[in-house]
Amino acid sequence: MSIYPHATMMTVAQWRQRLAQPDEGLAATLSRIYGADATLHDERLALMWRVIEAADTTLDPSIPCALIRVPGRINTMGIHTDTQYSWKNHVVFGREIVALVQPRTDDVISLHSPHQAYPDYSFGISDLLPDDERGSDWMEVVEAAWDHVEVGAWQNYTIGPMLALQNHYSDRQLCGLDLVVDGDIPMAAGVSSSSALATLAGIAAIHFNQLDIPMGEAIRVIGAGEWYCGSRGGPGDTGAQMLCRRGHVLHVKYDIPFDPYEEHHIPFPDDWRIVLCNTLVEARKSVGGREKATARGLSQVVGATLLREMFPEHAERIKCVADLTPENLGVPVSRIYEMFQALPIDCTNELALKLAGSRAGELERPLRHWRIDQAEYPLRSPCMWTLCEPARGARNRLALERRDEAEMRVLLQAAHDGDRIVRWLDDERGEPYDNTVSDDALARLIHLADSSDAAERESAQLYRQPGGFGCSCPELDLLVDICDGVDGVIGSRVTGAGMGGCMFAYAHREAVPDLLRQVKARYYERRGLPLAAWELLPSDRGGPLVLAD
Q1: Is the pLDDT assigned to residue 286 strictly greater than 50?
Q2: N or C end: fewer C-beta atoms under 10 angstroms in the chain?
Q3: In order of start, what are the domains of the chain with their CATH numbers?
């Protein structure tokens, strides 16, 4: 049975009529997805209405279509660890990609947007993935196509998931689809606007082809579809958009290779709010930032391989860097830091192959797939982040369940400092922030971890160590420092891949007006920028709209 067996199916004219005359069934559906916020309901209806107007001149008026929506996501804890077997924490919110979708009798996928920046595009699934090439290793399909892919083009986020699902279902032909798409998720802002389009395409293919695919497998295949666009991440964004529940934080852990998965839904505290602030600095992984993000991802793969080679007694228990925990290896935390001393601070591909020794063959494919131009890339500091951020991701659940504000503040501060590049002294002056994990830093952690003093031992625990991923930017750091200084703010950090885009703050409900006033005056107005910050609560996962009776 399909994981999306139901959808309200109506012609464009019928959708127009239903939305033009809202009834109790529509109101109940909106409340189920978004909560009781009437203003948010009006905003969502306005977006759906824009899609319907665009579909008037695009879709076949006689064929029923489904309205599919996929929200933006905020990764609250567990960032940059998609390829690790570790806990992630997500919410989705009331900004979305929405599409009216109707099936075709051929295998052509046709995309239309009312915005000139996203020109119409169509492709035949069989033209890009012929019958005799299906069922191949998906990465080989991606590599074969990469030289012909238009980098950054919006259609890639539909092509990738469609081809990934067709490759997965090599024994049957997927039907074509006509999609009319619009959205209001901030673009290039680290809140998964691109992933939302990819997830929407995957959901549409699953629904209209009634694919009998388990949820974990669907998340894995659709998430891997984004590799077609140049990324090499895991399925975290797709998982959030397909699993989150309104009013809850998704606490989820994907096994390698991301199926099966374990999920928990943690009620979001009633008196807390999320304030999302967009720096308005674009975080474009497909253009300038992709090299840096790819180098960090490569460091995670190289680090795990080197640690397996250097410490063969633990090799079978190290699938990824996040596996180097005291609990998994049966060693004290001080021993973990001693193992990290063996990793070089920076690395090159040549050095990685040399240090990998008998495991050099394990790196040949990753070094080919994670293609970067820079000769040298950070290794130890991103790997320390990759070990410590999952420890925070695991503790995040208890902090939420207990509404432990002090614990949450510690988690958020350590997390952002691992990405930080500037410490702001005031709103105008900042100084570079060095989060390199040096030999001296590790020696100090070893000393503290073995101390007889309980407070010193606690300060050396993994969840308290920032590591050094270094993917913030000065503007993100400034917004975090502004927010953390406002009364009633619990803590804040970057969300998404960083290098621009958004940060978020947890704040008490009564603190939100002052928080918004301060970021408006101290960040946006000083730069002549429009306010791009708003209060939100967790909304519901994406999927076809099913209207209540």
Answers
A1: no
A2: C
A3: 9-263+538-544 (3.30.230.10), 290-395+435-467 (1.20.1440)
